[in-house]
Specification:
about 450 residues, single chain, 3 domains, Arc Repressor Mutant, subunit A, 16 strands, 9-stranded mixed beta sheet
Amino acid sequence: MNVEQKKYQPVIGLEIHIELSTASKMFCSCPADHFGKPPNTLCCPVCLGLPGALPVPNKKAVDWTIMLGLALNCQISQESKFDRKNYFYPDLPKGYQISQYDQPLCFQGQTTLKNDRQIGIRRVHLEEDTGKLVHIEINGEKYTLIDFNRSGVPLVEVVTEPDFESVDEVDEFVKKLQQIVRYLGISEADMEKGTMRIEPNISVRKIQNPNSKFQNDELPNYKVEIKNINSFRFARKAIESEINRQIQLLEKGKTPVQETRGWNEAKSGTFSQRSKEQAHDYRYFPEPDIPPMIFDDMQVSKLKIQIPELPEIKTKRFVAEYGLSEYNAEILCREKDLADYFENAVKIGKQENLSPLQIAKFLINRKLDSKRSSSEELIKTIAQSQQAFEISDQDLEKAIEGVLAENPKAVEDYKKGKTTILNFLLAQVIRKTNPNIDKTKIRQTLIRHLSNI
């Protein structure tokens, strides 16, 4: 961090879009699984916005959005509605997007980072995705084509408060959110496929007193949004680049323009796209074809009990219940399938007197694929590897004599008092015999041989 950077504090909020893995789209019966499908083959009058077509909300998408809100400790609206967000763009066939404005499904949530800082969740709302622009070149001419397969796919938007103060905090949160979404089973949240997209809003403010923990919480009078980032690595680089760009402007006495920018990976920098819109620019009004949604406590409670044990809680339980280190527990809980695979293996392993720690270390060190072998096969493999290797005294003596003959300097060092060299010699004997040999027996035999030399 250079001198200029130390004078400023980043102020970052996030808008994260996640496509839900429902069977059908948000307001029609077209298949929602659009990735890799031939262009414009998953469309109908509703998702193409043809006159007279009426939208019907996807109940599962609504339920899943509420579940995500609950997982992020949000309050759930008793009454929610859909709104029309009006703007003109080629990938929006209706000329408006069905979204949510002033009555989102979920609001006022929060989550805690590892440094104990709380990040506020302003809202979690549901909308429809847009079409996709495809830029190509034919016979030297540049064209932009539109694929409407993605148009109308259920899209959850998670909006945070501007509570992030570093790129590391952003990175931790977006990875945590992806993990929660996958545990809930509501989306693959695959950045490469575009089913999870990050849009950071960035500004910086001058630190009044670098030696004080308490600073002015007043937000800067501008913010810059970077659109549609589709990898964690790009998100880090884009935010870092934009923070540096804004600091350089402020150092020159200029205020950064409030605008929407894109990320150019080839040039490792952001570029201007358009001036940033305000809410009134979209002329929101209630969607007249969809009545308001009313939720009572019983409906919300039924959804709450469907939420599985989430990764943060599961990690803490693995530490407490199985005696794992926090590091190992975190690795095993990164994916729900792997965590379930481990727990099933622990149950089966009791019959072979295998401890959870043995199973965890074997899984992590061997980097086994939980989808390719059953828990029973795993336990059988571990049990076989744990069996002591039987070796005759004659063969052990021969192996030790060979190691001592091959390592005369190590023998000399041991005789000079460097007893730690014994571990090296022990490892050489194991290499000549078997990893599961009785190591106590080797050590005792080695010491006897060395004392007779």
